[in-house]
Amino acid sequence: MNRPTMDHPAIAGIEACPSLAALLPVPVAAMRCTIPLAGASLWPSEEAAIAQAVAKRRDEFTAGRACARHCLIELGLEPAPIPVGEMGMPLWPDGVTGSITHSDGIAMAVALRDGAVRSLGIDIEPASSVTDAMHAIVLTPAERDALPPQDRAIAATALFAAKEAFYKAQFPISRRFVDYREVGVELAEGRFSVQVQSDIPSIGAAGQRFDGRWCMLDGHVLTAIAL
User: Do 79 and 129 sit in the same domain of this protein?
Assistant: First the structure.
Protein backbone atom coordinates (compact mmCIF):
# COMPACT_ATOMS: atom_id res chain seq x y z
CA MET A 1 0.00 0.00 0.00
CA ASN A 2 1.20 3.49 -0.78
CA ARG A 3 2.44 5.66 2.09
CA PRO A 4 0.84 9.10 2.45
CA THR A 5 2.78 11.87 0.70
CA MET A 6 2.40 15.60 0.39
CA ASP A 7 0.70 15.00 -2.98
CA HIS A 8 -1.62 12.26 -1.66
CA PRO A 9 -2.09 12.99 2.03
CA ALA A 10 -5.58 11.70 2.73
CA ILE A 11 -6.63 8.45 4.29
CA ALA A 12 -10.41 8.15 4.41
CA GLY A 13 -11.66 8.32 7.96
CA ILE A 14 -9.05 10.74 9.37
CA GLU A 15 -10.40 14.21 10.05
CA ALA A 16 -9.47 17.38 11.84
CA CYS A 17 -10.59 17.60 15.48
CA PRO A 18 -11.43 21.20 16.40
CA SER A 19 -12.61 20.12 19.86
CA LEU A 20 -9.13 18.85 20.68
CA ALA A 21 -7.34 21.83 19.15
CA ALA A 22 -9.52 24.18 21.22
CA LEU A 23 -8.26 22.63 24.47
CA LEU A 24 -4.69 23.83 23.90
CA PRO A 25 -3.36 27.39 24.34
CA VAL A 26 -1.37 27.43 21.09
CA PRO A 27 -2.31 26.63 17.47
CA VAL A 28 -1.85 22.93 16.76
CA ALA A 29 -2.64 20.30 14.17
CA ALA A 30 -5.22 17.96 15.72
CA MET A 31 -6.60 14.84 14.01
CA ARG A 32 -8.93 11.99 14.94
CA CYS A 33 -10.26 8.74 13.48
CA THR A 34 -12.22 5.66 14.44
CA ILE A 35 -10.57 2.33 15.25
CA PRO A 36 -9.92 0.22 13.24
CA LEU A 37 -8.90 2.54 10.42
CA ALA A 38 -9.14 1.00 6.96
CA GLY A 39 -6.21 1.79 4.68
CA ALA A 40 -3.75 2.64 7.45
CA SER A 41 -0.37 0.93 7.76
CA LEU A 42 2.85 1.20 9.73
CA TRP A 43 6.40 2.07 8.77
CA PRO A 44 9.03 -0.60 9.51
CA SER A 45 10.44 1.19 12.57
CA GLU A 46 6.93 1.44 14.00
CA GLU A 47 6.08 -2.17 13.18
CA ALA A 48 8.95 -3.39 15.31
CA ALA A 49 7.32 -1.95 18.45
CA ILE A 50 4.19 -4.10 18.17
CA ALA A 51 5.43 -7.16 16.35
CA GLN A 52 3.97 -9.44 19.04
CA ALA A 53 0.86 -7.39 19.80
CA VAL A 54 -2.70 -8.71 19.60
CA ALA A 55 -5.02 -7.44 16.87
CA LYS A 56 -6.77 -4.87 19.08
CA ARG A 57 -3.48 -3.29 20.13
CA ARG A 58 -2.26 -3.24 16.53
CA ASP A 59 -5.43 -1.49 15.38
CA GLU A 60 -5.11 1.16 18.12
CA PHE A 61 -1.43 1.78 17.47
CA THR A 62 -1.86 1.93 13.69
CA ALA A 63 -4.76 4.38 13.88
CA GLY A 64 -2.86 6.62 16.31
CA ARG A 65 0.22 6.72 14.07
CA ALA A 66 -1.92 7.48 11.02
CA CYS A 67 -3.45 10.46 12.85
CA ALA A 68 0.02 11.59 13.92
CA ARG A 69 1.33 11.50 10.34
CA HIS A 70 -1.62 13.55 9.18
CA CYS A 71 -0.71 16.09 11.84
CA LEU A 72 2.73 16.33 10.24
CA ILE A 73 1.14 16.95 6.88
CA GLU A 74 -1.10 19.65 8.39
CA LEU A 75 2.07 21.32 9.66
CA GLY A 76 3.47 21.39 6.14
CA LEU A 77 5.93 18.56 6.74
CA GLU A 78 6.55 15.28 4.98
CA PRO A 79 4.99 12.27 6.70
CA ALA A 80 7.53 10.26 8.66
CA PRO A 81 7.72 7.26 10.98
CA ILE A 82 6.96 7.86 14.66
CA PRO A 83 8.62 4.95 16.47
CA VAL A 84 8.36 4.11 20.14
CA GLY A 85 10.96 5.41 22.57
CA GLU A 86 11.63 5.12 26.27
CA MET A 87 8.56 4.16 28.36
CA GLY A 88 6.43 4.11 25.21
CA MET A 89 7.11 7.75 24.34
CA PRO A 90 6.39 8.60 20.66
CA LEU A 91 9.58 9.73 18.90
CA TRP A 92 8.47 12.65 16.74
CA PRO A 93 10.64 13.97 13.90
CA ASP A 94 13.14 16.66 14.81
CA GLY A 95 11.48 20.01 15.29
CA VAL A 96 8.05 18.59 16.20
CA THR A 97 6.28 18.23 19.54
CA GLY A 98 3.17 16.12 19.85
CA SER A 99 1.06 13.54 21.64
CA ILE A 100 -1.04 10.50 20.68
CA THR A 101 -3.96 8.87 22.45
CA HIS A 102 -6.53 6.19 21.79
CA SER A 103 -9.41 4.67 23.63
CA ASP A 104 -12.67 2.87 23.01
CA GLY A 105 -12.90 3.14 19.23
CA ILE A 106 -11.23 6.55 18.87
CA ALA A 107 -7.63 7.53 18.09
CA MET A 108 -6.28 11.09 18.19
CA ALA A 109 -3.03 12.95 17.72
CA VAL A 110 -1.91 16.53 18.15
CA ALA A 111 1.33 18.20 17.04
CA LEU A 112 3.05 21.52 16.51
CA ARG A 113 6.46 22.72 15.48
CA ASP A 114 8.88 23.24 18.36
CA GLY A 115 9.07 26.63 19.97
CA ALA A 116 5.63 27.65 21.21
CA VAL A 117 5.65 25.17 24.11
CA ARG A 118 8.03 22.52 25.37
CA SER A 119 5.66 19.59 25.24
CA LEU A 120 2.05 18.48 24.73
CA GLY A 121 -0.01 15.77 26.38
CA ILE A 122 -3.48 14.47 25.50
CA ASP A 123 -5.62 11.62 26.77
CA ILE A 124 -9.05 10.21 25.96
CA GLU A 125 -10.99 7.80 28.16
CA PRO A 126 -14.51 6.36 27.98
CA ALA A 127 -16.74 8.38 30.30
CA SER A 128 -17.20 6.77 33.71
CA SER A 129 -14.42 4.24 33.07
CA VAL A 130 -12.73 4.95 36.43
CA THR A 131 -14.75 2.94 38.92
CA ASP A 132 -14.84 3.20 42.71
CA ALA A 133 -12.54 0.18 42.90
CA MET A 134 -9.82 2.14 41.06
CA HIS A 135 -9.94 5.26 43.21
CA ALA A 136 -7.30 4.19 45.71
CA ILE A 137 -4.88 3.44 42.86
CA VAL A 138 -5.25 6.52 40.67
CA LEU A 139 -6.58 9.26 42.98
CA THR A 140 -5.16 11.00 46.02
CA PRO A 141 -7.22 11.09 49.24
CA ALA A 142 -7.98 14.78 48.63
CA GLU A 143 -9.22 14.01 45.11
CA ARG A 144 -11.44 11.21 46.39
CA ASP A 145 -12.91 13.48 49.06
CA ALA A 146 -13.65 16.19 46.48
CA LEU A 147 -15.57 13.94 44.06
CA PRO A 148 -19.09 15.31 43.55
CA PRO A 149 -22.12 13.16 44.38
CA GLN A 150 -23.45 13.75 40.87
CA ASP A 151 -21.47 12.41 37.88
CA ARG A 152 -18.94 10.96 40.31
CA ALA A 153 -17.53 8.44 37.81
CA ILE A 154 -17.13 11.08 35.10
CA ALA A 155 -15.27 13.36 37.51
CA ALA A 156 -12.99 10.49 38.56
CA THR A 157 -12.32 9.69 34.92
CA ALA A 158 -11.52 13.34 34.18
CA LEU A 159 -9.02 13.39 37.08
CA PHE A 160 -7.37 10.23 35.77
CA ALA A 161 -7.26 11.52 32.19
CA ALA A 162 -5.75 14.81 33.36
CA LYS A 163 -2.96 12.88 35.09
CA GLU A 164 -2.37 10.80 31.97
CA ALA A 165 -2.14 13.91 29.79
CA PHE A 166 0.26 15.56 32.24
CA TYR A 167 2.43 12.44 32.36
CA LYS A 168 2.66 12.31 28.57
CA ALA A 169 3.68 15.98 28.47
CA GLN A 170 6.23 15.84 31.28
CA PHE A 171 8.04 12.59 30.46
CA PRO A 172 9.84 13.74 27.28
CA ILE A 173 11.30 16.58 29.38
CA SER A 174 12.02 14.90 32.73
CA ARG A 175 12.48 11.26 31.67
CA ARG A 176 11.04 10.46 35.10
CA PHE A 177 8.20 8.08 35.93
CA VAL A 178 5.54 9.99 37.85
CA ASP A 179 3.01 7.98 39.84
CA TYR A 180 -0.68 8.92 39.83
CA ARG A 181 -0.47 10.01 43.46
CA GLU A 182 2.55 12.24 42.85
CA VAL A 183 0.25 14.81 41.26
CA GLY A 184 -2.94 16.33 42.58
CA VAL A 185 -5.62 17.55 40.20
CA GLU A 186 -8.39 20.05 40.81
CA LEU A 187 -11.28 20.07 38.35
CA ALA A 188 -13.39 23.00 37.22
CA GLU A 189 -15.84 23.26 34.35
CA GLY A 190 -13.77 22.65 31.24
CA ARG A 191 -10.49 23.17 33.09
CA PHE A 192 -8.13 21.42 35.45
CA SER A 193 -5.07 22.31 37.49
CA VAL A 194 -2.24 19.85 38.14
CA GLN A 195 -0.10 20.38 41.24
CA VAL A 196 3.07 18.30 41.52
CA GLN A 197 3.49 16.73 44.96
CA SER A 198 7.24 16.15 44.65
CA ASP A 199 10.10 17.69 42.67
CA ILE A 200 10.18 16.66 39.01
CA PRO A 201 13.47 17.46 37.23
CA SER A 202 13.17 20.17 34.58
CA ILE A 203 9.41 20.41 35.24
CA GLY A 204 8.95 22.02 38.63
CA ALA A 205 9.34 21.85 42.38
CA ALA A 206 6.74 20.37 44.69
CA GLY A 207 3.72 22.65 44.80
CA GLN A 208 4.04 24.04 41.27
CA ARG A 209 0.83 24.10 39.24
CA PHE A 210 0.12 23.56 35.56
CA ASP A 211 -3.21 24.28 33.87
CA GLY A 212 -5.00 22.18 31.28
CA ARG A 213 -8.46 21.80 29.79
CA TRP A 214 -10.96 19.01 29.33
CA CYS A 215 -14.27 18.31 27.63
CA MET A 216 -16.76 15.56 26.90
CA LEU A 217 -16.61 14.23 23.35
CA ASP A 218 -18.68 11.37 21.91
CA GLY A 219 -19.13 9.67 25.26
CA HIS A 220 -15.49 10.14 26.25
CA VAL A 221 -13.51 12.43 28.51
CA LEU A 222 -10.80 14.30 26.57
CA THR A 223 -7.95 16.13 28.30
CA ALA A 224 -5.05 18.23 27.02
CA ILE A 225 -2.17 20.17 28.55
CA ALA A 226 0.85 22.11 27.29
CA LEU A 227 4.06 22.60 29.27
Answer: no
